[in-house]
Amino acid sequence: MRIAFHTPLNLFDDGGVSGDRRMARQLVAALEMLGHAVEPVRTRRGYMRSAERSCFDHHCDEAQRLREGLLAGYRAGAPRPDLWFTYHNYYRAPDLLGPEIAAALDIPYVTAEASDSERRAFDEWSAQTEIVRRGLSAGDVHFYFTDRDRQGLEPWRQPGTALLELPPFIAFENEPPRPRDHAGPSRLITIAMMREGTKQASYLALARILHRIPGEDWRLSIVGDGRQRAEIEQAFADLPPGRIDWLGLIPREQALDELARHDIFVWPGMREAYGLVYLEAQAVGLPVVAFDSGGVSATVMAGQTALLAPEGDEAAFADALTALLRDKGRRERMGTAARRFVLEERTTARAAGTLAEGLDLACRHRLDKLKAVRPAAS
User: Fold this and answer.
1) 170-188 exposure pattern, b = at least 16 Cβ within 10 A, e = fewer
2) Which of 168, 185, 343 is nearest to 269 (CA)?
3) Is the distance from CB of 98 to CB of 115 less than 8 angstroms?
4) pTM (2 decimals)?
5) d(CA 56, CA 49)
6) CA-to-CA distance for 190 and 118, rounded, in angstroms?
7) Among 10, 173, 174, 378, which residue's beta carbon has the most beta carbons within 10 A?
8) Contacts of residue 190, Cβ cutoff 8 Å, sequence gap at least 6
């Protein structure tokens, strides 16, 4: 099939660094693995920084012009898509193109990682949320990554709209390195951008957690950079000297090598969508310690490859981390299980199989809808 691939949040091939861009590229690779021709929808970034009406109207006007241009091109003979696929449709980046174009062309409409927010339906984001919901209602298949997203999508599970679980997956160009033995204290590592909001909150939580266990034998490497670096560094400043290594922003392959020099991956992950970095750390063979927050649990096997503390319970997080610091055999067993879990179960090939099932179902759903409408119109 020819698939129109739309990413309202970020243009996945714009050179930016983010987890959603990586997942979009991985989805494209999985679809191409199935033999489909994937064509990115060329548009401006659809992310809305504020709920101001002028911002919303501007995005809607741009989307209308693009819809009309695309449909005019298809009518004039441009290659038409056989299916529309939108990744990451939510209230700050609603899909202003897909539902209308899919309806005009009578083609299936599919989403991945779409999400609904009951709270946003009644605040200043209500107009944007209504557009998201119209798209969810029009969909033929919605792939969800986490149980939290599934819960929000349940109202749209109906005979003509299916929900399919697509667990977060990750691709590697080469086999990830294995952990290396080292002398000295246990080595902890975390990798995250240093921006305001949930990332900064997780960094500050991690600093408080480590302040609880200064007597344990550990050293932490921090990979990442960003606007909030000064504030984040200050949060770790009172820890004993020599405990923190600030590595800055480094390329992915170098980050994988850095993971292999460590023993435990620690990242609170407060309200994390899911976090591809958890999959990367496990693929290298590191156990994970995190909060059971957001979609983190969708990326690990709790108790087997990761220890998850209740969200916000910093004492429980510190206890879990201490337990691994004191038990080398346990963390090595968990690391072995983690590597096997990611490299066998969370692969592009596994994802492609789920996508194939969903696309087939979407085509059948769309055909059934068309059959139901055409007799009534004749």
Assistant:
1) bbbeeebbebeeeeeebbb
2) 168
3) no
4) 0.93
5) 10
6) 33
7) 10
8) 206, 220, 221, 222, 223, 224, 265, 266, 267
Q: What angle do CA 270, 265, 198 make, to 5 degrees?
A: 20
Per-residue pLDDT of 30-59, as tens digits, reads 999 999 999 999 888 889 999 999 999 999
- pLDDT attached to residue 142: 98
Sign of the C-alpha dihedral computed for residues 245, 246, 248 and 252 taken in this order: positive
- Type of residue numbered 109: Y
Structural contact between residues 194 and 249, judged by C-beta atoms closer than 8 angstroms: no
- Which residue shows structure tokens 């998850």? 308
> Is 186-345 CATH 3.40.50.150?
no
User: In this structure, are residues 192 and 267 in contact, taking their beta carbons and an 8 Å threshold?
Assistant: yes
Tokens, residue 90: 């939510």
Q: Helices in the chain by DSSP H: which ranges?
A: 19-33, 53-75, 98-105, 126-138, 147-153, 198-211, 229-236, 252-259, 276-284, 314-325, 328-345, 348-377
Name the one residue in this structure whose structure tokens are 């659809």: 46
**Among candidate residues 44, 140, 149, the one with its CA nearest the CA of residue 88:** 149
Which residues, 6 or more positions from 289, have their beta carbon under 8 angstroms from its beta carbon? 264, 265, 266, 306, 307, 308, 309, 317, 320, 321, 324
Q: Which of 107, 172, 167 is nearest to 138 (CA)?
A: 107
Q: Give CA–CA dist 101/77, Å, rounded.
A: 16
Binning pLDDT at 50, 70 and 90, where does residue 267 land? very high
Query: How many CA within 13 A on the CB side of residue 326?
Result: 9
Query: What phi and psi values does residue 85 have, to the nearest 5 degrees?
Result: -125, 120
Fold of 2-169+348-377: Rossmann fold (3.40.50)
